[in-house]
Amino acid sequence: MNAFSETDNLANIVEIDDASDSRLDDIRNLNKSDSRPDLPGGKGLVIAEGNLIVPRLVRSRFPLRAIFGTPSKLAVLADALSTEEAKIAATVPWYSLSREIMAEAAGFDLHRGLLASADRAPELSPAEVYRGAKTLALLEGVGDHENIGALFRNAAGMGVDGVLFGAACADPLYRRSVRVSMGHVLTVPFATLEGTTTTWQRSLQELKDEGFRTVSMTPSGTVNLWDAMDTEKVAILVGAEGSGLTEHAMAATDVRARIPMSAGTDSLNVATSAAIAFYERLRAIAG
Amino acid sequence: MNAFSETDNLANIVEIDDASDSRLDDIRNLNKSDSRPDLPGGKGLVIAEGNLIVPRLVRSRFPLRAIFGTPSKLAVLADALSTEEAKIAATVPWYSLSREIMAEAAGFDLHRGLLASADRAPELSPAEVYRGAKTLALLEGVGDHENIGALFRNAAGMGVDGVLFGAACADPLYRRSVRVSMGHVLTVPFATLEGTTTTWQRSLQELKDEGFRTVSMTPSGTVNLWDAMDTEKVAILVGAEGSGLTEHAMAATDVRARIPMSAGTDSLNVATSAAIAFYERLRAIAG
């Protein structure tokens, strides 16, 4: 499959040989772009890197803006896109540039040699995320971009239908989260619950009314994880590494579940304990 | 509990105010020490960082050499050590130094302000690791220090008795592995199986003779993970991220087990899939 032969749109490839060209602004100073208030939403664009993730951005709900790559990487991408993806990709410019020009614009060497930019899509409402869902993940205070990325990767891999954010979580569309998630922050729907650090928990009632069993993951849980996942709908709550879920959040859930840990060891990394809960949920549905 | 009041050995604290002092050689240029062939085993010393991990090094099988810290961090450590740990720690020098001197010697700023060094202990034999064990992890081709560290952390937390290395794995005692493992590369016994990349698999027969069911973790598994963990002894095999276990290794195991993944997603990170297998094993024993 070839983006160009399919679409007859070869004219979209534009060569750029000057790093200061304004058409490279989407990928300029990438390490800093998420803090640039002049960009949409004050949070920067959505940036995808490499031949695994760029196609996921292309077919996501995020409006594609442009594709940037070395000539060879653009050719690989064109071959890798499905017919449907190629049609979308052909609606935006493809900028062909050397690895050096790309590094100069981005501010560091991009080993993968391929980038795509997209606008932030309008945020989904919580109801758009939980309606029709059987399994949700709900995060409180997870401030680490890599943990958020890993959580989305595992959510996508093990059939979690959506992710909800309570208070104090990091931006899932930050470039590092996109990369660590393998692009699945773009494919798994997410929304932010309304409220402050001490009021967002009221939204849990909404989930309960929708039939979700709300399960707090905590080392101090009163039931084993494997006894908590067998209802039709489940929302799995995980908290910040170290501090965990707030008591306020746990008190608002139906059950506190634990992974029994060996004496003298620490609680698991938040993405790891969530992955185990997703697995247990998958097992409960499939087993 | 106080290391000094317990042991009457306050004289062990030595102040150092010159970064070139040879007594700081154990922590000099830490980013490079693992490649220094002049150090024991050609692989450098074992270095632990911070008040969570240093006590684990103190009570480990690795012979403690010295402790380095800012005055306040040494005081916190002294309070945190158990009586038994304090006795061991009192047999080595405690070097008190400023954060600046520590940074100058180590080559970068150590946020935790506390380090300890130890010699590499003699390597254990595979039999020393599997004798008496009920659950083992066996790694092939896992070259990433963070994945190895995370795997040991999860192994310790979920009751895995030991770790065996097939060919082509990274050094578990590298500083970053020690840190990511939360010090559990020092507490969970490990050994390397003899042989090359294509011959180490013969050792699997030895494990089978000892009564272990050998289970390959692979997305192409023929049974679900939850149907593979219910024998008295289990050895869980995981391979490199991306390529996974070699066919040679999988062919030598009793069963190939899968975590069923959603369509259009990638296999899980090796430390994550191992963590899920450890959980399933824990569940099989406890449930």
TrEMBL record, chains A, B:
- Per UniProt, residues of the tRNA/rRNA methyltransferase SpoU type domain are 138-279
What's in the keyword line of the UniProt record? Methyltransferase, Transferase
InterPro entries annotated for this entry? Answer: Alpha/beta_knot_MTases, Ribosomal_eL30-like_sf, rRNA_Methyltransferase, SpoU_MeTrfase, tRNA_m1G_MTases_N
Q: Which Pfam families match?
A: SpoU_methylase
Coiled-coil ranges (or none): none
Which biological process annotations from GO are given for this protein? methylation; RNA processing
Any single GO molecular-function term of the entry would be: RNA binding
What protein am I looking at? rRNA methyltransferase
Q: Which organism is it from?
A: Corynebacterium lactis RW2-5
